Amino acid sequence: KQEVTQIPAALSVPEGENLVLNCSFTDSAIYNLQWFRQDPGKGLTSLLLIQSSQREQTSGRLNASLDKSSGRSTLYIAASQPGDSATYLCAVEYGNKLVFGAGTILRVKS
Amino acid sequence: GAVVSQHPSRVICKSGTSVKIECRSLDFQATTMFWYRQFPKQSLMLMATSNEGSKATYEQGVEKDKFLINHASLTLSTLTVTSAHPEDSSFYICSASSLAGAYEQYFGPGTRLTVT
C-alpha cells in the first residue's frame, strides 16, 4: 500500500529559526514528490516539485531534498517568519495519482 | 497561469438535499480533473479522477451514486453530493491537469460543505 507519513505532526518555533519537515513514503517507485502549503480553510499552494531523477529543489528560503532509495524527503525552511505559519503537505505522485501525507502544522512565533 | 477556481467556496445545506460544486480551469484546458476530500486536520483523500467526456474513476470506498462527477468540457467538472447527510460535511478540493502542463496538478481553493 502506498502511504506517506509526515513528521512532526505539529511544530512551534521562534521567528528566525531554521527548521526541517520530514516526509517518508513506502513505495519508492515515484514519479515525483511535491511540497504544498495550506492556510486554514484554503486550498493548496505548490511550493516545490522534485522529479524522481532529481535530488533537490530550491526556491528562496525553501529547500526540498529527495532520497528515493530510502523513501524520504525533507523540506528545509531557513530563517522562518510568522508568515510561514501554515500546514505543509507532502504529496507523492504515482502515475497520475497523488498520495498525500497528513501534514505538519507549523507555527512561527514572533 | 494555471488557475483553478471552485464555486461555491462555502455551502450549508439541509440533510437530504443535493449540492453541486463546480471546478473550473480558468486559463488552460484540463484533460483530467481530480476531486479530493479533506477532513479536519487530516490529509487530502482522492475521491475520483475524471477525464473530459469519460466516466469518472472512483477510488475504493467512494460511492459513485452518492458523489456524482461530470466532466463535460475541458474547463469544467462538477461534483454533486446527492442526498447529503451530516457525515458528508467536509472540505472538498478539486485539481486539474493537462498534457501541456506535464500533467502537474493545479488545485482549486476548496469548498467547505456543511450539512445540517
Summarize the structure.
The complex is a heterodimer of chains A (110) and B (116). Chain A is an all-beta fold and 110 residues long. Chain A is 0% helix and 60% strand.
> Based on DSSP secondary structure assignment, what is the total number of beta strands of chain B?
11
Q: Percent of residues of chain B in helical segments?
A: under 10%
Give the termini distance of chain A in whole angstroms.
41 Å
Rg result of chain B: 13 Å
Number of helices of chain A: 0
Share of β-strand residues of chain A: over 45%
SS-derived structural category of chain B: mainly beta
**Shape, per Cα inertia axes of chain A:** globular
Could you report the average pLDDT of chain A, rounded to the nearest whole number? 95
Oligomerization category of the chains in this entry? heterodimer
Total beta strands of chain A: 11
Largest interface, Cβ cutoff 8 Å: A-B, 19 and 23 residues
User: In one word, what is the shape of chain B?
Assistant: globular
Model regions low in confidence, pLDDT < 50 over at least 5 residues of chain B? none
- Series of secondary-structure elements of chain B, N-terminal to C-terminal: EEEEEEEEEEE
The H-and-E topology of chain A, N to C, reads as: EEEEEEEEEEE
Quickly give the structural class of chain A. Answer: mainly beta
List its traits.
heterodimer; A: 110 residues; mainly beta; six-stranded mixed sheet; five-stranded antiparallel sheet; 11 strands; 0% helix; 60% strand; B: 116 residues; seven-stranded mixed sheet; four-stranded antiparallel sheet; 52% strand
Describe the structure.
The complex is a heterodimer of chains A (110) and B (116). With 110 residues, chain A is mainly β. In chain A, strand 6 and strand 7 form a beta hairpin. Chain A is globular and about 40 Å long. In chain B, 0% of the residues lie in helices and 52% in strands. Chain B is mainly β.
Helix and strand layout, with pairings?
The complex is a heterodimer of chains A (110) and B (116).
Chain A: E1 4-7, E2 10-14, E3 19-25, E4 32-38, E5 44-51, E6 56-59, E7 62-67, E8 72-77, E9 86-94, E10 97-100, E11 104-109
Parallel strand pairs in A: 2-11
Antiparallel strand pairs in A: 1-3, 3-8, 4-5, 4-9, 6-7, 7-8, 9-10, 9-11
Chain B: E1 4-7, E2 10-13, E3 19-25, E4 32-38, E5 44-51, E6 57-58, E7 67-73, E8 76-81, E9 90-97, E10 106-107, E11 111-115
Parallel strand pairs in B: 2-11
Antiparallel strand pairs in B: 1-3, 3-8, 4-5, 4-9, 5-6, 7-8, 9-10, 9-11
